Records
---
Amino acid sequence: MAGLMSRASMVVKAKFSKLLDHAENPAETLDYSYERQLELLQNVKRGIADVVTSKKRLELQETQLQQSVVKLETQAREALAAGREDLARQALERKSGLQQQLQGLDQQAQQLEQQQEKLVASEKALSAKVEAFRTQKETIKAQYSAAEAQVRIGEAATGIGEQMTDTGLAIQRAKDKTEQMQARASAIDELTTSGALEDFTSDQTQLDRELGALASKSQVDDELAKMKAEVGSGEKQKELQQ
Amino acid sequence: MIVRLMGEGQFDVDDEVAKGLNDLDEQAAQALEAGDEERLSELLRRMAEAVRMNGARMPDEHLDASDTIIPPDDLSLEEARRLFGDEGLIPDLPGA
């Protein structure tokens, strides 16, 4: 059984020999390969930007859920003050469910953040590699005339071929990982928007309505009491004036 | 001896380190064979660490081919199978 190192070396060598054997104009092939690397790297950069956007959306949803938690807490107090323990219990139950969801969301956001940091770091390293490849290919092109390169590039360019293959693999893996993260971020996004994680801020629940009615009733009661007091004191003043 | 850490770069290591790498490599191949992802990652990580700690990093502009190549230390089992299998993990190079 061959070791992994020799197998990896074989795979890499096979990859670029195939390329160089078929290349009619090695200099052109190197240029084209460089362009292609730049292009793929751009895709990785765009992918990372998408992930950042998804993460921001996730954070926004977290903030909204946090606001809902505060709101439910207030509602529970109001309900209790109004002697509606049943409603207070409902509000607190929802609050606890919401807090659990928040925790899960927070963990996911943190994981996304860590993976994103790694991706950004590897994207930077890749940019440096692609730039190094550009320098290498210019060296090769300067060393050999086109005709000479045709013959000699096989041996002289083994190093650059290896670098090219390796950079290709690294970019491919960064691309795969970025796509995985995009899929994951959008899955979380989907989950929250489809209501699997219920959005408590937008939909008016039965609880909301009852508490709303209660709140407006108590507001009416308050205002009524205030008015009564005012009217009462007015009457008293009248009495005093008389 | 020039060793390439795939996706990272080339390092110059001495024979002693190379010998240690061969031992780890043999175990890594067994781990892959056994489908033991955790063990494979651990071994690949140890190999990469040995190279990073004891080797001299070659500049990216360096043009010589490596004597040997070590797969990425975060290679998953599925990626390893693709890398060494027919399907191939490395994208076809343009023009090939």
---
Amino acid sequence: MTEPNIRILLAKLGLDGHDRGLKVVARLLRDAGMEVIYLGLRQTAESIVAAAEQEDADAIGLSMHNAGHLTLAPRMVAALAVAELEIPVIVGGIVPDEDVAALRDAGVAAVLGPGAPAEEVVDVVRRAVDQRRSTG
Amino acid sequence: MDGDDRSRWSKAYEGAVLRDVPFETMSGVPVEPVYGAGPYPGQYPYTRGVHPAMYRSRLWTMRMFAGFGTAEDTNGRFKELLHHGGTGLSTAFDMPTLMGHDSDSGWALGEVGRAGVAIDTLADMRDLFADIDLATVSTSMTINGPAPILLAMYIAVAEQTGVERSALAGTIQNDILKEYQAQKEYIYPPRPSMRLVTDMMRFTTAEMPLWHPVSISGYHIREAGSTAAQELAFTLANGFAYVEAARSTGLPVDDFAKRLSFFFNAHIDFFEEIAKLRAARRIWARWMKERYGATAERSLLCRIHTQTAGVSLTAQQPEINIARVAIQALAAALGGTQSLHTDSYDEALALPTEEAARIALRTQQIVAHETGVTNVADPLGGSAYVEELTDEMERQAEAIFAHLDELGEGSILEGVYAGIENGYFVGEIADAAYRFERGVNDGQRIVVGVNAFTDGDDPENRNLLRIGPETEDYQRKRLDAVKADRDGQRVQDTLAQLTSDAADPTLNLMPPILDAVRAMATEGEIVDALREEFGTYVEKAVI
Amino acid sequence: MNTESSRSPVDEVFGRAAAGERRAVGRLLSIVEAGGPQADEVTELTHGRTGTAHIVGITGAPGAGKSTLTGQLVAHIVACGGRPAVLAVDPSSPLTGGAILGDRIRMDDLAGGDVFIRSMATRGHSGGLALAVPAALRVLAAAGYDPVIVETVGVGQVEVDVAGTADTTVVVVTPGTGDAVQANKAGLLEVADVFVVNKADRPGASDTRRDLELMLDLSHLSGLDAAAGRRPPIVMSDALQGAGATEVWAEVVAHRAWLVANDRLEGRRASRSRHEVRVRVEQLLEADVDALLAAPSGQQLLDSVAAGELSPAAAAHTLRSDLLAAD
């Protein structure tokens, strides 16, 4: 039996409406053979947790542009912890380098900078999911 | 024939009041106001410019966005700008305000005062414009979904300081159609939202002759990833849609069209951007005259505000963005813009620092005062390349209009609604964005600092603007105080009246919104009152 | 085999799912999607435990507004006290095997966020979907959801088959797109129990309705609908405005009542089970055939055929004998 397809939720937390990057990543991941469950804009940590449970998601990808990452990303990690779900959270978008360490400390599995090439995005997701599958 | 054009233009030019500067090159060579063939600037179809003397008469307005923190904070910045000689204010609002949420709403957590100023009630609006004479300044407000509420607040503040609404000059963006296509700052579904727009157009046409009730925007469409031709076509199509909608409420086109203005992007492909602005003027004039029967000259003019492309700025080696912005500002000037905002170089990373904002303003000033491009109107007119590009932009735009006309069975307005619902705009934009990304990824499209020439990036040493949580605390307290102080019953009554009026499409909602605003209802409460009747909009995923 | 003190992992997850734990249901759905021995175990556990849940299929061409309509229906069902679940099936890319599953956004919002929604990609293997979907529907029914709705895009034969295996199948068409004719071509007319003309505010809506009526008339005249015994109603709706959803659901419920009253519900379910058994057997056999052909003896046989020494028919008979002898 082959390894099942990776199922990844893609979403934006909070009010920010810039979804250009999110949509591009959705296509990239689909082209890499993944199943992208596209939740889109204006999700809350709770709505993402509910979807993650229903969809049995392997990973959660969040796109951030409005300097909200230091508040919103930890909130996502915390909501997953409360629900006792071990799903890696990957943050992409505009994250200044100096904040990456803080995000990792808060429990974010990986951070992708703006303009990260397609291969890197796909690779980061695969590694995060592989890691989860081997420990899970 | 061209001789006629030229002599007509000449007469018009002579009637213009010019700036008191020498119109010659740096080396002292005197130059003509315009070269080449007609139609000339100020002549239908205005390809070469909206005014016969263009920048010889008046430079473009250097209108820089401001907005952060509390109303008091922004009021301070406004006063500084006015003190330095500005006559125009441009207001940026925070995300909760843009989306119709109060600062104490769950959605506002972490976002209050960050991307702009926080406005919850009339009290905040009063603070925003404290000690500023609204009769003498022109104010631009960049807000869409809750636009009628902010306009009502502005009017109420003016009233309370003794300024008649008919004296108020300014613009409110209020371009809801592009929200469904690109920026996604919508609240209600398209048709009820359009009703709010036409209510405001009717209201301002009748009572605020100096006010621009819609700034038809392509900037955001381009930022979302469209091509230049799509930006051009979708924007003008939205403009046609607003014209059709306003006409259908009984407003004659020549009554309102003169107060419609446009907002385009200035991206990095230099000549394409110049051609785009030229094509915009030509298309708008022709359609307004031939399709919509406008006869007043002012109805045919496509007056443009431009902003340099935020999306073209890189986080890598951000200082080189200064060069990008300069080139884009130059393109806007050569394209004949009436007003310009130049981005700060650090915009890809955070809100601009004061230094970065100053550099952006100085960039415009260099273009305006040092380069000499303002001596001649449409200096690239007649260039085989630019004329061909202009024609090509127009051709591509016309193909899109034809598609929308078909979708809408003879109505661009209906075609736009259909395109919103079936995902046409969003799909085209997503496709264009994806093609671009693939190009960058494959190395076919070079972005300096990102996929080529990457040496020199210094991520450790960025000096970024950070906004703290003080604004949120302050706003919450302010809201509590306003709510404690106001007449709760009166608020409930005005909101109930608003919901009830919303159910009758023939009623203009500006008066009941004004009542609610004066009663100190919050923005969120007013948005909710309308939501009861209009519902909300969730987009279909079109990727 | 499973004693009280040691339950299999699948059994353990099943227990939690039956008790209403959402994430356990999510896990089970992944197991049945993946297929294999664990999926078979789930089939064992869910067989006969799906109760009286109403299985509803919703299908139609892309762009017909199915997900908006489904969202409206689900909101209505919740308002009436139901506990619906939705399986939203979307095509995988034939090139890359990946998929973008975006149906749940609108549904989720319209339903107030309180509904179980699962997105499933077709994953490109035609056999797989025909098994994965019924198995998934059984999981949801066993977990206590009722009705269980499967929403597919009705373009491929497999998708049409899937929709047709529901208790009640709703076919959605839109005016002006030739949807009615397309529906006929795709074989949807045979499986439809309720027709919905969505975007009924559009011009051409009454034409589309008329087209459907005509096609149903023809079906009746030619006797093709004899087995159906009932003429599917046509409901006009405008899902975006929220109009018509209540009527659509009323017809769906009425259809179920009709099935029960006319003793047809069991028959439908029986034919579904028969079909599933057949598909499973075919899949098992296919796997065996693949193994045989890949083995050295099989390869030799194929080489002989290629060299012209053996006819394909003779080769096939030899292989079949080997297959039957092997067990």
